[in-house]
């Protein structure tokens, strides 16, 4: 998505070897108009699919997921991160390890909000190592629902997230911006 790439070039900041800071428009301060256009882009990219629900993880996935849900006219459910290690019978749960933060979060979705009949679009802000996607897939699988694909705002193609997701059977991943590398503090995008 050209507008997103231009915004990343204008307002993103590369931190160290592999982190892109986009907190001025994506995951701290939010540009709602851009977010809405990204939601529409996800809806267009998956227009060939029947989707009954959008699933994401708090916190930063919620904004793009809500905009995708708005464009698709379906409910959005976000997995909550919980410090509790105690499994409830009332929730589907999965462990998600964050390489960036070096912590494990249990993510949970109340069983009332996922049914075996659901056709689910997964949404997240970043695809890095793929652990969040794998955790969401685990939960949707527990519900017996179907995943139609995953929509990602920013994919770092030089990290193993897509491969890890593909190996887990998540084969349809649409990313609005794909970053091939950071070179001298500059973002280099994958050629479309
Ligand atoms: P993974 O889910 O693809 O495996 O990602 P990883 O463990 O590497 O990253 C963990 C967290 O760091 C995720 O947020 C992810 O969105 C975020 N992250 C990964 N790479 C970048 C990056 O280059 N820039 C920024 N800004 N964030 C990145 P999270 O823990 O779920 O946090 P949040 O949703 O509560 O913000």
UniProtKB/TrEMBL annotation:
CDD domains noted in UniProt: PRTases_typeI (cd06223)
Gene Ontology biological process terms, A to Z: purine ribonucleoside salvage; xanthine metabolic process; XMP salvage
InterPro entries: PRTase-like, PRTase_dom, Pur/Pyrimidine_PRTase, Xanthine_PRibTrfase
Statement: the UniProt record of this protein carries the keyword Ribonucleoprotein: no
Pathway: Purine metabolism; XMP biosynthesis via salvage pathway; XMP from xanthine: step 1/1
Cell location: Cytoplasm
Catalytic activity: XMP + diphosphate = xanthine + 5-phospho-alpha-D-ribose 1-diphosphate
Gene3D superfamilies: 3.40.50.2020
GO CC annotations on file: cytoplasm
UniProt cross-references to SUPFAM superfamilies, sorted A to Z: PRTase-like
Keyword set, alphabetical order: Cytoplasm, Glycosyltransferase, Purine salvage, Transferase
UniProt main location, coarse: cytoplasm
Amino acids binding 5-phospho-alpha-D-ribose 1-diphosphate: 128-132
Family annotation (Pfam families): Pribosyltran (PF00156)
Superkingdom, taxonomy of origin: Bacteria
Residues covered by the Phosphoribosyltransferase domain: 39-171
Assigned EC number: 2.4.2.22
One of the record's GO molecular function terms: xanthine phosphoribosyltransferase activity
Residues the entry annotates as binding xanthine: 20, 27, 156
Function: Converts the preformed base xanthine, a product of nucleic acid breakdown, to xanthosine 5'-monophosphate (XMP), so it can be reused for RNA or DNA synthesis.
Family to which this protein belongs: Belongs to the purine/pyrimidine phosphoribosyltransferase family. Xpt subfamily.
Subunit architecture: Homodimer.
Protein name per the record: Xanthine phosphoribosyltransferase
Taxonomic lineage from the root: Bacteria, Bacillati, Bacillota, Bacilli, Lactobacillales
Gene from which this protein is expressed: xpt
């Amino acid at each position: 998505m050209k507008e997103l790439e231009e915004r990343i070039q204008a307002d993103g900041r590369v931190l160290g070897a592999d982190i892109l800071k986009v907190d001025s428009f994506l995951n701290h301060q939010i540009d709602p108009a851009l977010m809405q256009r990204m939601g529409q882009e996800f809806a267009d990219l998956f227009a060939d699919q029947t989707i009954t629900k959008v699933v994401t993880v708090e916190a930063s996935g919620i904004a793009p997921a809500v905009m995708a849900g708005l464009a698709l006219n379906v409910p959005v459910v976000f997995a909550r991160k919980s410090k509790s290690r105690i499994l409830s019978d009332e929730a589907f749960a999965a462990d998600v390890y964050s390489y960036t933060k070096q912590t494990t979060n249990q993510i949970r979705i109340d069983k009332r909000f996922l049914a075996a009949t659901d056709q689910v679009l997964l949404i997240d802000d970043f695809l890095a190592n793929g652990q969040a996607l794998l955790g969401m897939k685990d939960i949707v699988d527990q519900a017996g629902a179907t995943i139609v694909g995953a929509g990602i705002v920013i994919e770092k193609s030089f990290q193993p997230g897509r491969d890890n997701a593909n190996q887990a059977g998540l084969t349809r991943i649409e990313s609005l911006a794909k970053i091939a590398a950071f070179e001298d503090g500059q973002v280099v995008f994958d050629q479309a």
